[in-house]
Amino acid sequence: MAPLYNMERKRHVPGLWIVCAFVLLAGHASLFANHTVDDAYISARYAENWAGGHGLVFNPDERVEGFSNLLLVAVEALMIGLNIDPILSAKAFGLLASLSVIALLALLCRPVATPAGIMAGCIIFAASPAVALWSVAGLEGTLQAFWLLLWIGVLLRLSAAGSIGAARFLAWQTSRLWQWGVGLGVTLPVLLSALTRPEGVMFLAANVFILASFPRTRRIAISAAIVSIAAYGSLLIWRHAYYGAWLPNTFAAKVVRGLSPGAPSGLHSGLVYLVTFLVRGGGAGVVALTLPAFIDRQSRKLAWMISIPIALQLLFTLAVGGDWMIGHRFIVPVIPVMCLLAALGISQRGVWQRWNRQHRWPILQTVLVTAVLTLQFADAVQLNHDAKEYSEGVRRAHVQLGLRLAHEAQPGSSVAVIDAGAIPYFSKLRAVDMLGLTSREVASSPDPSFAALVVLRSLPDYVVITNQAHHAGWDMNALAPLSVPERSLLASPIFYQYYQRVSDPFQYVFAYYELILMKRTSGLARQ
Hints:
single chain, six-stranded mixed sheet
């Protein structure tokens, strides 16, 4: 039987267009170079504490796993040891991962796609505004994308083993050393994916399932399963021994407790998240380009195998309701795989000819690709506007407030916040996270108002309150806090006995209008 992925059939790669894809992505990402999402500072704070000898913690001597990107935190900690800023290193590795995806995508397309398909797949990926933004936003999205595409590449290469020579393949297959080596090799990228994002564990299971689905690789599936269980099991044992929990605290805060304020959750929010990507980001056009790969008999099995990580990631996104961040962060990891499928679909000339018997199918392909690029351009304009507004707000409010606290707060002071990124990172103060991402006590309660009780019991030196109301001035009764914990605090007479407002507002104007700084003063009565 002919292999699904024939390595002997390598088409010419349009080198000039690949260079154009590199330039396009680098230039596109430069538009978002100043965009750093607030959550990136959470990872950076963990990395700084780790590199500083305090352990993998957010607050010293308080072991809580408030991050969901262990591999990126490890890279940032290593870069800090080399005197490189963790945010800068996260941006650099994110962009490097995206550029590497283009090279890997072109390489994987060679045996199955025409030059036109290779060109279209790489250009669509490079023109994706979501990819450009998350290449430099300071989080792990594009790094996860690289691992998933590399995993698919290893699976494709393994499926092509028969084309190299059946006799040699069967001879090597009887070697136990070969089975364990291949099992480790095919599992390593997906294991790195699981270290990059917690939901990567579902790809470990999918890896074993795919290998077990083909008779020639069932023995390899056994070794892959053992490697996966041993490696990920070791991570779970370490996590429980170090943090006292089997799952990251972010899981409890986001899934069990439910983030407040207004974080998306549920199937409806997840469906809106996916539909928005299909409509705004050109996703529907990319899906249309992939369809011929599922219709053609020769490419059908290959297309279904490639689509498995896409299906898993989309189901995960649907289940958790997406997220609040701009740029469809949860879909970015599978955009390269979607582009690989699109390149495969564009290359199925027989299907396109049946659809358009007047032999104008190249025009139809050009129209679809142009439509995708046009929608991506329109989305990039809006995303660039949103990213600038968000970034300017973070610098004007969170960063400035954090720097002010670093300047005026006494050593050993603490601060309670809703956004646990830039303010704790720049202030270097012990933080009480009222959303529970970095606080096990807050995350353990399903009641969002419980965080207010934690604040009143611990009495941090500062409390930061968000305000959605314009022109509230210094009238505390006119404030409109964004979250339930903040509203509970302002409704408590006890809060005003201990805290007073000490500054003009720090304007943010993205998710809310401003930040209000409250300082603890013993026995102060409400004004």
